[in-house]
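Bug report (template v2)

What were you trying to do?
Predict the complex of my protein with iron/sulfur cluster.

What happened?
Run completed; filing so the output is reviewed.

Input:
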Amino acid sequence: MSLSGTLMDMYGAMLAVLGSSRWWPGETPFEIAIGAILTQNTNWKNVEKALSNLKDASVLDAEVLHGLPLSALAELIRPAGYYNIKAKRIHNFLQFLKDEAEFDLLSLKNRNLAELRPQVLSINGIGPETGDCILLYALDFPTFVVDTYTARLMGRHGLAWEDIDYHGLQAIFMDALPADVALYNEYHALIVRVGANWCRKKAGLCDDCPLQPFLEQ
Ligand code: SF4
């Protein structure tokens, strides 16, 4: 079977067992973008607490957040960990939004992905995974998000080589799958769920995993 067929069958198997993920959690695209930065190196529960602080303080707005002193922003997002670093990263992102879009995140949807993506990735502190999360989940651009779960799963199924880098892994999916925002959205979410529940770092719990039929015999 072609790689495209295999990847689509794996997608179908995960979706059949897990159902739709309805990602990314967030009430607005701006909240999704800030959540994507906050979730670096921490779990989602901690991100929720930080987002909740921002909402309670009525500052979850690009222009308002940009006007906040860094120390105040850091204090509000403290539950997400690395709060001083993340405050700077959020501020860098907000400065980009101000310079490029007068704080209007959604206006970036009118831009060309091939031009916008390098710009987003050039923001200090926004790596490819965070940048692609913002582009896919907040702005509906067809860019596939990969992460350590993806590398582990694909490696264990013989579909990616060891030490593959972010863009090599992303290219496997984007070369094989149609550029479909809904598909990319759900596929990454399903991989994260399979990774967290079955494809553990030490060893996969393969017997009960939705992807068990796809292991080489
Ligand atoms: S747990 Fe096993 S079957 Fe499931 S994705 Fe990982 S390697 Fe594949």
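What did the reviewer find?
The pocket of iron/sulfur cluster is lined by residues 153, 156-157, 194, 198-199, 204-206, 209, 211-212, 215 (CB under 6 Å). DSSP finds eleven helices and no strands in the chain.
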